[in-house]
Design brief:
Layout lengths: L1 H44 L28 H60 L42 H8 L9 H14 L3 H14 L5 H15 L3 H14 L6 H14 L4 H15 L5 H14 L3
Length: about 325
């Protein structure tokens, strides 16, 4: 009888031990899986490793008794580790999701900004192309006594220069009465070839000898581009075309002066008379108004009273908003 009791007790003990071992193995499996998941999350959060480890925000409490298991047993310890790891995984997962959401918001905002910027740049380029291809701007500055004009600052525009409208036939050497008119124009001789060339071209322009004036002015503008009179010469070159009823060629000359030498003293005048040339070419009012607006924005503080009055009159004629 004692033998059978001992055998039964032995079987019960072995059963309990087997159950505890099975539970321990199951919990250890969960721990191993969670630890692998934790390492995967940490690799995601810290690309490249660098040995960085995230400490769990949820730590096991002391003296926690797990129902159905003896206090201090290996199963209780493993259960606490599992609970801590599960809490850490949940916390890290939430942080990763929040970071991913913020990153998507930033990417969407940047994409929207890029689309807006590209659209604005394309609109500016299209507007410049239409303005250049549909008629070159021309400006007729008002020269003061002696051929000098007040200095004005300029800002370099970011536009595409308009193509030349046509090629002019070189002027033949004047003969007869024309030659006498040219000879009657005094040539200055100050020792500064750029200054002398501009003043001589200016005097020829005043005498309405436009082909001869253009020849002198072109030399100054191309041969002495760094001289202060280069801006004057290029601008007055446009005037000779405009006065000769060639607004398209005048527009090319004025636009070149504005584009290549925006800090030149005659750049504001070129932009001002550009609007007049566009009007003479019967261009859309929107293009003319854009020129007036740009002139006012770039040079408004330095324009003469006459030019400001001309802008007001021109905008009113074009019904600019």
């Amino acid at each position: 009888m004692r033998y059978w009791i001992s055998a039964a007790a032995l079987v019960a003990v072995m059963g309990v031990a087997g159950t505890a071992q099975a539970q321990t193995g199951a919990v250890e499996g969960r721990v191993d899986r969670l630890e692998r998941e934790m390492r995967a999350v940490q690799r995601k959060v810290f690309p490249g490793g660098a040995g960085q480890v995230v400490e769990p925000q949820i730590t096991p409490e002391a003296n926690v008794t797990v129902p159905g298991a003896p206090s201090g047993s290996p199963v209780a310890d493993l259960t606490q580790r599992v609970a801590a790891l599960e809490g850490s995984v949940q916390t890290l997962t939430g942080q990763v999701e929040q970071d991913g959401y913020r990153l998507r918001q930033i990417e969407d905002a940047f994409a929207a900004y890029k689309r807006s910027t590209d659209a604005r740049l394309k609109a500016l380029e299209d507007g410049s192309s239409r303005s250049g291809g549909s008629g070159d701007p021309a400006i007729v500055p008002v020269d003061l006594g002696g051929g000098t004009e007040p200095a004005r600052p300029a800002t370099r525009p970011g536009r595409t220069p308009p193509p030349p409208a046509a090629a002019e036939v070189p002027a033949a050497k004047p003969t007869g009465a024309r030659a006498q008119q040219v000879a009657a124009v005094e040539k200055p001789n100050s020792g500064d070839p750029a200054e002398d060339g501009y003043l001589y071209g200016f005097r020829l322009w005043q005498a309405k000898l436009y082909p001869e004036a253009r020849k002198e002015l072109e030399v100054v503008a191309t041969k002495y581009p760094q001289h202060r009179r280069a801006s004057y010469a290029q601008n007055l070159l446009g005037r000779t075309y405009l006065d000769a009823n060639a607004p398209s060629l005048a527009a090319v000359a004025f636009y070149e002066n504005y584009k290549k030498n925006p800090n030149g003293e005659r750049a504001p005048d070129s932009l001002y008379y550009l609007a007049q040339a566009l009007t003479k070419l019967k261009k859309p009012a929107s293009e003319v108004c854009k020129v007036y607006t740009e002139l006012d924005q770039l040079y408004g503080g330095r324009l003469s009273a006459e030019m400001k009055a001309g802008i007001v009159e021109g905008r009113a004629a074009q019904k600019c908003k």
